[in-house]
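hi! just following up on the protien thing from before. the input was this:
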Amino acid sequence: MARLADYFVLVAFGPHPRGSGDGQGQILQRFPEKDWEDNPFPQGIELFCQPSGWRLCPERSPPTFFVAVLTDINSERHYCACLTFWEPVEPTQEGLCARDATEQDEEAAEGSPGALPSPAPGPPGQLFAPKTLVLVSRLDHVEVFRNSLGLIYTIHVEGLNVGLESVVGNLLTCVIPLAGGSQRTISLGAGDRQVIQTPLTDSLPISRCSVALLFRQLGITNVLSLFCAALTEHKVLFLSRSYQRLSDACRGLLALLFPLRYSFTYVPILPAQLLEVLSTPTPFIIGVNAAFQAEAQELLDVIVADLDGGTVTVPECVHIPPLPEPLQSQTHSILSMVLDPELELADLAFPPPTTSISSLKMQDKELRAVFLRLFAQLLQGYRWCLHMVRIHPEPVIRFHKAAFLGQRGLVEDDFLMKVLEGMAFAGFVSERGVPYRPTDLFDELVAHEVARMRADENHPQRVLRHVKELAEQLYKNENPYPAVAMHKVQRPGEASHLRRAPRPFPRLDEAMVQWIVDQAAAKMQGAPPAVKAEKRTTVPSGPPMTAIVERSGGLHGNSARRLEVVRNCISYVFEGKMLEAKKLLPAVLRALKGRAARRCLAQELHLHAQQNRAVLDHQQFDFVVRMMNCCLQDCTSLDEHGIAAALLPLVTAFCRKLSPGVTQFAYSCVQEHVVWSTPQFWEAMFYGDVQTHIRALYLEPAEDREPFLVCGGSLGRGMGGPGSRSPVALRQAGEAPVQEDERSALDVASEQRRLWPTLSREKQQELVQKEESTVFSQAIHYANRMSYLLLPLDSSKSRLLRERAGLGELESASNSLVTNSMAGSVAESYDTESGFEDAETCDVAGTVVRFINRFVDKVCTESGVTSDHLKGLHVMVPDIVQMHIETLEAVHRESKRLPPIQKPKLLRPRLLPGEECVLDGLRVYLLPDGREEGAGGSGGGPALLPAEGAIFLTTYRVIFTGMPTDPLVGEQVVVRSFPVAALTKEKRISVQTPVDQLLQDGLQLRSCTFQLLKMAFDEEVGSDSAELFRKQLHKLRYPPDIRGTFALTMGSAHTPGRPPRATKDKGPSFRTLSRNLVKNAKKTIGRQYVTRKKYNPPSWEHRGQPSPEDQEDEISVSEELEPSTLTPSSALKPSDRMTMSSLVERACCRDYQRLGLGTLSSSLSRAKSEPFRISPVNRMYAICRSYPGLLIVPQSVQDNALQRVSRCYRQNRFPVVCWRSGRSKAVLLRSGGLHGKGVVGLFKAQNAPSPGQSQADSSSLEQEKYLQAVVSSMPRYTDASGRNTLSGFSSAHMGSHVPSPRARVTTLSNPMAASASRRTAPRGKWGSVRASGRSGGLSTDVGSRLAGVGPAQANGAPPDPGFLRPQRAALYIIGDKAQLKGVRPDPLQQWELVPIEVFEARQVKASFKKLLKACVPGCPATEPGPASFLRSLEDSEWLIQIHKLLQVSVLVVELLDSGSSVLVSLEDGWDITTQVVSLVQLLSDPFYRTLEGFRLLVEKEWLSFGHRFSHRGAHTLAGQSSGFTPVFLQFLDCVHQIHLQFPMEFEFSPFYLKFLGYHHVSRRFRTFLLDSDYERIELGLLYEEKGERRVPQACRSVWEYVERLSKRTPVFYNYMYAPEDAEVLRPYSNVSNLKVWDFYTEETLAEGPPYDWELAQGPPEPPEEERPDGGAPQSRRRVVWPCYDSRPRAQPDAISQLLEEMQRLETELGRPPERWKDAWDRVKAAQRLEGRPDGRGTPSSLLASSVPHHRRSLGVYLQEGPVGSTLSLSLDSDQSSGSTASSSRQAARRSTSTLYSQFQTAESENRSYEGTLYKKGAFMKPWKARWFVLDKTKHQLRYYDHRVDTECKGVIELAEVEAVAPGAPTMGAPKAVDEKAFFDVKTTRRVYNFCAQDVPSAQQWVDQIQSCLSDA
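and the predicted 3d structure came back as:
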């Protein structure tokens, strides 16, 4: 029984003490005045009566009622029912508050809750103050409170003749039962009557209609997310204008959480003064008036539910885990069936007449029933995971969370994990875990209805029926007597609040009320307590749990077969059949990835251990340990499947004798697993074992209770009933449980709790003592067990297992029952890649003792061990540990003496000539990395990795050779190697060896040639050997000096790093010459060089180390520059002359002569006719060290002016010519970026000792003069009418073309800076390049690359060439946006600045790092499949950088092609500038696409112009910090992309590019060493000594090597090579057109990278027929494995095969075999002749017939549109296939010919006359030879690329021809053709110019066309 109301309080408005406008509540009276003993008066009640604040109000409002909830310190809830009414203010109060009335007016209008729209005004100026009647109760009877307070108010207002004191007194003395379903009628003595019904059970919450209302207000999804938020301990805030609604919503949410109780802050109505509570860090459920919404929005981690608006706002930083599927979707659908029954019938053709909709109260219960079912499904079987730790004096119960999650199959589920860790669930376990207590609806449901729920899952109607049944029970609980409720309570009349009240609410007589209360209390004392005995029973456990979703392990479907393998293997081991076991072992290790197999292993081993077969011989021990390790390595720290728990007794059982008296147990070999260092695991194990023993205490003593041995005890537990609760109840494996007393521990405990009150006191004491000593003995046992598994075998070496890092951090990890904190924090704390800390410093024993002590403390205090015992344990633990360490020392000593297991012999790698071994093989395991192919992953294939072998370190490479550990793969040799110089990252890792599953030190080496060596050192390799390996590797990777690199030391006898002494020669040798040269350079550097060095601080990436030029000794600089070095002196010193002659031999010079850019003689004798000259001004490298000695400059510029110009540019790299177009005579220039003229420039100028400010101005004038000279030395294409710039080409010009889909003009998205172009509306081709951001975000118009290109070219095709106008600038300067700010635009607009945004070297570096990780991941992806690779590829932004390079290059090509010159001036002029300039030349000039030309291009642009190979490749110690930046590799990738798109234009094969990509970082050759020609001369690398002195040696230059190799094999040659003369390539550049280079992804494990040709050619296999064993001849077929064999070598292409065959046959015939190239050239020549006889021959090559006419291999070509369509998609570009007028193609498409051409192939076409004609292309295009076909049937003239082509290039409709007339040759026409051979065909659209091969054929063509026209 309990009081209905504890206190009655009257609260009124009082002025604020500080006189502010708002008042405050004052308690006028409270009854009783003395606090009840069992229930003190709650403080702060006056705040809750007016939650929005106490304010006066200008008019009377109707009375309001709501219930606030206060929670006291004991977490008891007090319900405060508040009824508020308004009374006129007395004059005294009025005076106080008048001054603020106006402001209160405004506030009251918005703030007073429940204010009616039209309250009645009182007399003018009259104010009303609120007064509140409050009932405080611990019972939740809202309606009774409303009626009772209403009655008091009615008596007051209506002036009834009843004493208020007696009513209040009766109210306070009313006593009602708490539960049990009785009903009680009460009367307060005012002629009223109320019936109170008590719920049937106390534990079920009372919700009335609150849940249904909550769903109505917020909807299903929102309520579900609030539900999950509350369960996972998030903060929830409700907003509403109604206080009653807030109370209801909070009540509803709590009702949904049943059977869990919400244990955090719960305030349904929060007063305004307490709003700061919202920023508390703990979770809460709080309601706040909507007026304070603004304050709520500032909270970042609070989920806000707006009840009035129906929204739930979840902040970004909050993640609410959803319910696990399929529960989420099932719950959702059931809820919608309950809330909206019409939904199911909405689509019926004949809906039933009406459906009965449940009342709101009933619907409320149905909704709760849904959630009750949900909890039953979630927590089903929870009782099977309870551990009974103590039964007496009070039950102590623990929940085995890991086992629960594991058996439900929800380990990864975020939601359940958080719920089980939450406070609510901890409360649930302590409250509901008790085995003997009253049960309620939930207990029944979870125990008995689970099967039904599973069966009903797919039958919505049955689910609904079940929900309704549950709802009935819930309803019955709240309303046990639904019919009887008869109330009679007086209410005030309508609008009574508007009548003037006769008087204010009277003061009550305290004495009288107190007397009534005392009277009642006296009566109560006499009466016996009416306690209804609670009915307690044993709580049913229900069926054992099942997984929520039966996840069928897809990988381990055929598990029965796997289990069979495991069983067989184990029985072989114990029967001593070691060979058989060895064969099965790899299969077993693979099977053990599956859970069932691991269980099976544990079970089988248990059986063998029981049969006393625990002492094993060495081999058996080895096998058992290996399998255990494999089992454990996949255990998470939680051990949710109980594998570790099942193996724990076994690791202390299996052992081997090492020597008399020394036994090694298995635990010393299986320590290295996370699970052993997880306190939660040990706690669960301990509690499980304690439960087993406590249960055994109470079972019948008659049962044979053997003393519990380590093994036996755990076994008993493993086999017992539900209470045995071993996480692996071994019965799950399908075997019958051992017959014992079947009662579970919970049943036993329940029985004991029932008997407890009946036992005598002594007996009770005895039982408590027995239990306590049981727990204590287990604690000692576990201290021992833990020391076994935590102390490493070799404690001196103390390589503490990786967990030891964790042991230290566990201080706080597991501190209390409440936060059963996750071991995850520990599991993540040592990511396995972090390597080992220096463990020597930490003290093993101490750490282990602390870990065990913490464990002992926790479990003993929780399970009630006495403090004396606990102290004893603390003393014992260090002794236990110490003893164990001593035992281990002996074991360790003896185990070292064991004979080593036979290891396979090491395979020695093949070495190059000159390559020496530095470190001989260290035994290692090569482990699989993230690439699946080698490990036989999803792609199938054998598991080549892991492989067992050795790692070798030579002067040139790191090499692994070995064999796969899987014996089924056969005797394949696995080789993986890479050049030492390519190493980019080396990190220590700790990994498990594949065979023994031991944790070993490992190394992961990553190279920029895309190899990854992830290896674990064998245990025989000491840590010192591993360390030595690392040190040597480091020394070789970063030699202190470039002379230490392999290319320079190879094959030389002297020690690296000391150049050999030169012998005295008579003539000056090249060595001495180069020394002179350097000396001279130093002398002549002059002051400017030094000052430049000073004020050009190195960029960040160069900061760390001095650049090579700074490392020389200080040079004394003469003040004046020596005039002799700066004027071209005709009297060169003898040594200089030699320099000149050797410079002339350099590649650049040969190329300049080829391009007609002047010869050296012309530059000395100044032939004025040439616009450019070769200047020797830099022959001593005095002006610019990173430029070549000879440079091309305008004829008009003096050498001494160059010195001054060079100062304006970074690194003194002033603009020089590097290429000239043979056709348009435009030149390509390159330079470094300009020195900043902005703030940086000023800043530098102040620090630099400059001779006055004039220097800067003069140099900038020099710069302009120089540019002017460049412009004036170019042939002028521009007309005098003024230079219109590129930026504005108008659409009017486009109009001269036939409108075509690609002639769309788009305005730029961001116009150019006004300084650069004076057009008002700049349009044109720059838009996209400028707009593209640095990060590589492609703006919309970048795709079309040139902003004037319409959508037809979305794939990045080049634009129509027609857009270039005749008026354009003569020179375009392409520079970085940031640099060009200081450059003044040319007033005459002879040059135009094109600012573009480029990426920097550091971005290339970062991007490459990511690319490397994407292509060669260190560990398998979390989600296998191509998606993760593509995602990481995209993240690297590598392809975006390639796209940008190609984009800019094609742009420059366009400009050059149209006759404008271009200066590329980006960054320092040696990275991106070099890439762009090289690509431009490659695209524009077919010569560079030959083997010789490409070599020349690289030598000229990359080597001579000073790309910093050594710096970017980090070749020496100095470059180590700057890291590897693959600028050259990026260029090769671009070439590869172009090669893919134009496979017939390149003489070299893709292999050639990969070869250069590999060797430019390998340092095998000298070619790519050092940063400039100057440095190469200084080291004596550039000019090899000629004559006899030159010793024969290995190839030092990569070009020499390529040449030699090319003579022997066509590996670098591209058979498809069939160039079109003067073809300018314009590749597509969009990312979608780019492919990942296979250089990054492919690998051959048979012989390592194939780029060292001598090594790659393995010994030839003997032909199959003559097998040495004399067996029958076998087939010649062999398996080619991906990733193992090199496919091109295993299956060479047909031509290579034929050439090889020819060589073989010639050798057989005894003839000297001819070179492959000669044979190939002969074949090609013969093919050409064959094609000729009929006069139709084409100059095409052998392959022309097989390769279609478009020269691209990419792209979609939809030549013809759909029938009759006037517009067709054309995705190829005109340029890609030569020049056709777009107009003629358009015309063809519009004509009827489309109808034919769809169905007929070229062969079947009607060809009336055909032959070769030259045709002049459209505007600005060259003449080309085409094959023309005159077709009388279709009445058209068609043309093709070649005679054999089937696809037509264009059509001229004869219907449109107006005339055929003789023509005249125009520019670019074929030479040596008679003028009369030209004729023109004029159509309505344009004039076509043709040229035949000779005059007669021209005449014949004209006649044929005329006759066709006349026929028509």
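The CA atoms of residues 725 and 1729 lie 90 Å apart.
The two ends are 117 Å apart (CA to CA).
cheers
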